[in-house]
Write a structure and sequence with these properties.
Blueprint: E1 10-11, E2 18-21, E3 26-29, E4 52-55, H1 58-74, E5 76-77, H2 80-96, H3 107-113, E6 123-128, H4 134-145, E7 153-157, E8 168-173, E9 180-187, E10 197-203, E11 206-208, E12 212-214, H5 218-233, E13 241-245, H6 246-255
Parallel strand pairs: 6-8
Antiparallel strand pairs: 1-5, 2-3, 3-4, 6-13, 7-10, 8-9, 9-10, 11-12
Helix pairs in contact: 3-6, 5-6
């Protein structure tokens, strides 16, 4: 289209709206101008629900025309280098979050659909048996009582190299014979963690790009608890905690195997 003499292609860095406009009608909605957005590839489009409205009202069309002209004047002309850059970004996006992926309902469903997705590097599983020492717990209590951190903040000690900022953590305590699932936690951003502590905040749902938001099901909780039991038996009874990546944990728990980590 760049070579067509009757077409001028422009882009605007702040434009996100999807508007199909002609002098007689316009369509406003969520669909991108792509095979996925237009449902031309049925399998790829299974993950998205689009909505669009056709507009025929003359006054509304006049307003859209003015809006479009203002954006068009403010935009920049697209060159071949811009298309090459956009293609590179799209290729990178497909590796991280494949377009059209159906949203997962559970953790194991998400893992089965794309086990090599880099997002799994941000999900960790921790099994612990020792609480924070008195010094660290006193620091947490003081920060909460003085209003500097909220009451849904907790911390892990000696995990700062294993749990990174904004990582998700599935927490299991193993103080008794049967592991107890304590929910999903998210590590706080950089700059707020004291030395030797990784601060985390309790959240309700695991939120992963390309997979959606979901809780850990009862079946998954039991499977991951089973991994804890087999892993603990293979280790010293005195270890304070064990932090593992989510990927091998999900794989072995989903199959009912013993986890080789430990």
């Amino acid at each position: 289209m760049l070579d067509h003499p009757g077409i001028t292609l422009k882009s605007h860095p702040s434009l996100h709206a999807k508007v199909w406009w002609t002098s007689t009608a316009a369509i406003v909605g969520s669909s991108n101008a792509s095979t996925n957005g237009l449902a031309l590839e049925c399998e790829a489009g299974n993950g998205w629900h689009e909505a669009n409205v056709r507009i025929n009202d003359t006054r509304a069309l006049d307003g859209i025309c003015i809006w479009f002209d203002d954006l068009f004047k403010a935009g920049y002309r697209i060159k071949l280098a811009d298309l090459d850059h956009a293609q590179a970004l799209w290729n990178a996006r497909k590796r991280i979050a494949p377009t059209g992926m159906r949203l997962a309902r559970t953790l194991f469903d998400a893992y089965r659909s794309s086990p090599d997705n880099p997002v799994w590097q941000r999900v960790k599983i921790i099994y612990w048996c020792d609480h924070l020492d008195k010094k660290h717990q006193d620091w947490i209590d003081t920060e909460v009582n003085e209003g500097r951190i909220s009451r849904n903040i907790s911390a892990y000690s000696e995990c700062e190299n294993k749990i990174l900022s904004n990582d998700y953590v599935l927490d299991f305590s193993i103080e008794s014979e049967n592991p107890v699932y304590n929910g999903i936690w998210k590590a706080l951003p950089l700059g707020v963690h004291p030395t030797s502590l990784r601060l985390v905040r309790k959240i309700n749902l695991l939120s992963l790009s390309a997979f959606g938001r979901f809780k850990i099901s009862d079946i998954e909780e039991a499977a991951l608890s089973g991994i804890a039991t087999s892993t603990i038996r293979a280790r010293s009874e005195s270890f304070p905690s064990l932090t593992m990546p989510c990927c091998p944990s999900c794989e072995h728990a989903d199959r009912g195997d013993q986890c080789p980590c430990g």
